[in-house]
Write a structure and sequence with these properties.
The chain has about 110 residues and is of the alpha+beta class. It has a domain of about 70 residues. The chain contains three helices and four strands; from the N terminus they run E-E-H-H-E-E-H. The chain starts with a strand and ends in a 12-residue tail after the last helix.
């Protein structure tokens, strides 16, 4: 996960830069469970050996509540080096592990119930 704080100049933030990151992330995971139910027919139509990386963009209010603003079907991998190194490359590496092994073991992925 990476954060873009847009002001007159764009500032890229890593999760370690965010206060209460775990609280925000827990709310996003909960929201993902709701999305899983909403998109259940589409998810069930995906074959066992088929994967899709989606980019979910959220805004967070002052109470740390996330609001989904869009879902991107083509992820953006044109980021500053610090984001590419700490976010993009690990996501792609973990995606390959998942596709090859068929499990999220030894990845940064979690199963959404």
């Amino acid at each position: 996960m990476n954060i873009i704080h847009q002001t007159s100049t764009t500032k890229w933030l890593l999760p370690t830069d965010i206060n209460l990151h775990d609280e925000i992330f827990a709310k996003i995971v909960n929201h993902s469970s709701e999305l899983k139910e909403i998109f259940k027919p589409e998810i069930e139509s995906v074959c066992d050996n088929e994967y899709c990386i989606l980019g979910l963009d959220y805004v967070v209010d002052k109470d740390k509540n996330p609001f989904l603003i869009e879902i991107n079907h083509r992820s953006n991998y044109k980021h500053p080096t610090i984001i590419s190194t700490s976010v993009d490359i690990p996501v792609l590496f973990d995606s390959f592990k998942l596709m090859i092994s068929g499990t999220n073991n030894d990845t940064g992925y979690i199963v959404i119930e």
